[in-house]
Amino acid sequence: MSAITGAGACHCALVGTPNSGKTALFNALTGSRQKVANYPGVTVERKAGVVNTPGGFCLRLVDLPGTYSLRARSPDEEITRDVVLGKLASETPPDFLVCVADATNLRLALRLVLELKRVGRPLMLVLNMMDIAKRRGIEIDTAKLSQLLGVPVTTAISVRKGGIDDVIAELDRMAPGGSGGAQNSWAVPGATELRADQREADRIIRVTVKLPAEPDTLTARLDAVLLHPVAGLAILFVILFVMFQAVFTWAQPLMELIGDGFDVLGTLAHNALPAGLLQSFIQNGVIGGVGSVVVFLPQILILFLFILLLEDLGYMARAAFLMDKIMGGAGLHGRAFIPLLSSFACAIPGIMSTRVIDNKKDRLTTILVAPLMTCSARIPVYTLIIAAFIPPTTVGGAFSLQGLVMFGLYGAGIVSALAVSAAAKFFFWRREMSPPFMLELPDYKLPQLKSVGLGLFNRGKAFLTRAGTTIFSMMVLIWFLASFPRPPAGAAGPGINYSLAAMLGRIIHPVLEPLGFNWQISIALIPGMAAREVAVAALGTVYSISGGNAESAIGHLLAGQWSLATALSFLAWYIFAPQCASTLAVIRRETGSSKWMWVTFGYMLALAYVAAFATYHIAVALGAG
Amino acid sequence: MLNLDYSAIFLLHALENGSQLLDSSSMLRESPPALACSPLGRGKPGFRGRIDRIHAHGSESGLSPDELERRLIELGFVEGASVEILHEGIIGRDPIAVRVDSATIALRRREAMAILVV
Questions:
Q1: CB pairs under 8 A between A and B
Q2: Most Cβ neighbours (<10 Å): which of A93, A174, A426, B60?
Q3: Quick one: pLDDT at residue B57?
């Protein structure tokens, strides 16, 4: 252990079972002095913060992923095990451990404490949520508990001001170190050892904890409704619908506000700078690039607000319970339903929310298929083509053909996502058994708004700094391709035709020709890589249409210039094509490497090509060429 | 004399097993009363009892029997703990929500087959 002086830094780690309120305690101790990053090489989040004690100690606190035992069964739990044992190369071994337990549910936590004692590091136990315990009439003899366990025990009410004073006082006592250090005698526990520990823990609880005569039934009563086979599922769908509406519709005004704000900034720059490359760079490259990142914030924040609230309430576990069989039938993990649902609005918050899936392979599968879900950015393209090429007739007297085609496109997105997921499972991960579904259903608790706010702030910050930088650089690159080199003076035709984008478009055109795409499409697809909805504006640029009513003008022009087969082929391409640099950037960030980003790009491109090819030639054969 | 002996033995026997019998008959819905142990995976909501032992075969799930046993113990399923099935899923009556002493755990019936309840 390091020699600690009054002004020295001390490292300690927070461990505990899931649902112990560890994060609330961490937030209460560190406040806004926390930093969220990733452990190197893995996609496990590292949460670290600083606690300054009245005794003058500066504690570097790490909040480790929750676990029931140091026996690691997932990447998250491996990090906890390695940090506790001091085996993680990138992490200073903790000087002492703080184990957090839910005072109303001590069985599993005390067994963990007994296991942690064997590691040999100084250890203290914090009984969290004491207010709930007191309200329920649970009495705990902390002195006796401390004596039987052999570790200091303090109580905490993380959500109340002043509720962590005892913890900070104890931290002050632990910080100087020098006491309790012992040899690490921890080995991977077998069933016998686990049983013995649990029996010992139960024995200790019998002696130190007095349960109330009438147990609390709030959770049981709520579950009678929320886990009811019919009512429960109905309530879940209502909640999912509300969440979907929030991300899809309510975020719109905010997104438009941000979009308009950046447009104003762009115009200011345009007026302030002399015409030329710098003006274009600042206005379209930099401001446009930053704007394209920030515009995602409302959707991401709203989605994560729902997720954090539902998680803190304790409802997420119930939702996973209700959805397990349905999702399992489709080869997906129960917790994949929120990420995939959110991907209907935008795949980016959807992919970011796959964090709720612990199993690495399931999470990866969900990330890979999320971009296939029909996102809102595809809608302008679908609307444009459908309005221009599909006649506004009714089918069967009631259904509009245009509406049916739109519905069909939506359906194609969902079906392809499920099909790719099933295929990935079959081909790559068939030999791996799906992990068992074993989940603790925590008691229902009121979410603490400060904790939720802090969580939202961290998510937003993480998105802006991590994904944002990648998205921004991609946007600048695309701007560069589309505006450089500048057209020679007095040149005819739109400026983009002289750019690198046009050269690239002409190079790939022979490959796209069998799909029925003309060279204008080939060129427009290059800037269209920035974002799906950009395709409309890009087509406008290539066909030299701009100004207010651009969209209907473009529609009319296309109706005159493209064959129906080309239009249908373009639609089929758009269902699958990875025309979104931002999504690719987020995939890279969330999976920790470029490999899966390229895999996504590759398979979606392949699917798009095959679909467009088939559609075009079938359409031509049916006379639409 | 003989009758008294027999009745005494019978009385002792009944006293010993009486509580167990009462428990068994109130909770066994699908097995004949002769069976003392019943896998948790076969119970309906309302099924309750005490865990007699964990007996994983390996055919229950993708986990090895030893791993399944360890995971169950880690979630609190140890001999002597009281269990009660609270809820079941709508499709295929799977998964089940089980109260284990003070906590509530959700698991699939095929894994719950390893938990023998008395």
A1: 121
A2: A174
A3: 78
Count of domains forming chain A: 1
Q: Which distant-in-sequence residues (6+ apart) come within 8 Å of A96 by Cβ?
A: A10, A12, A121, A122, A123, A124, A174, A175, A177, A180
| pLDDT of the residue at B24 | 43
Q: For residue A563, which phi and psi values (nearest 5 degrees)?
A: -80, 160
Domain count, chain B: 1
Chain A interface, best mutation among B40, B55, B67, B74, by max A CB count within 10 A: B74
Q: Residues A210, A215, A216, A218: what is their CA dihedral angle, to the nearest 10 degrees?
A: 160
Q: Average pLDDT per run of 10 along chain A, which is 625 residues long?
A: 50 92 89 76 80 87 91 83 89 91 92 92 92 90 92 88 85 73 81 90 92 84 89 89 79 86 87 80 79 82 88 88 79 78 85 80 88 86 87 78 84 88 78 72 88 86 78 79 75 73 86 89 85 78 62 79 91 92 88 89 95 93 82
What CATH number should be reported for the domain holding residue B26? 2.30.30.90
pTM attached to this predicted model? 0.79
What dihedral do alpha carbons A61, A66, A71, A77 form, nearest 10°? -80
A contact residues 193-222, partner B, Cβ 8 Å cutoff: 194-195, 198-199, 202, 219-220
Token couple for A59 = 């504690």
Tell me which residue of A344, A384, A325 sits closest to A528, measured CA to CA: A384
Burial class (CB in 10 A: 0-12, 13-18, 19+), A511: exposed
Asked whether A580 and A532 are in contact (CB, 8 A), the reply is: yes
The whole-number pLDDT of residue A149 equals 92
Which domain covers residue A208, as residue numbers? 9-215
**Quick one: pLDDT at residue A181?**
64
Q: How far apart are the CA of A460 and the nearest CA of chain B, in angstroms?
A: 32
pLDDT at position A180: 54
Domain membership of residue B67 as a residue range: 2-117
A183: in domain = yes
**Does residue A192 sit within a domain?**
yes
CATH number at residue A168: 3.40.50.300
Burial A301-327 (b: 16+ CB within 10 A, else e): bbbbbbbbbbbbbbbbbbbbbbbbbeb
* Percent of chain B residues past pLDDT 90, beyond the cut: 25
Reference A538, options A549, A548, A523, A557; nearest CA is A523
Tell me the two tokens of residue A85: 């044992």
pLDDT at residue A433 in the model: 59
Taking the Cβ of residue A362 and every Cβ of chain B, the question of whether any pair is shorter than 8 Å is answered with no
In the structure, what pLDDT confidence band is assigned to residue B26 with cuts at 50, 70 and 90? very low
Distance CA A612, CA A618 (A): 10
Q: Which residues of A135-172 are buried (b: 16+ CB within 10 A; e: fewer)?
A: ebebebebeebbebbebbbbbbbbbeeebbebbbebbe
Query: Which residues are paired to A34 by β-bridges?
Result: A49
* Chain B interface, best mutation among A81, A227, A237, by max B CB count within 10 A: A227
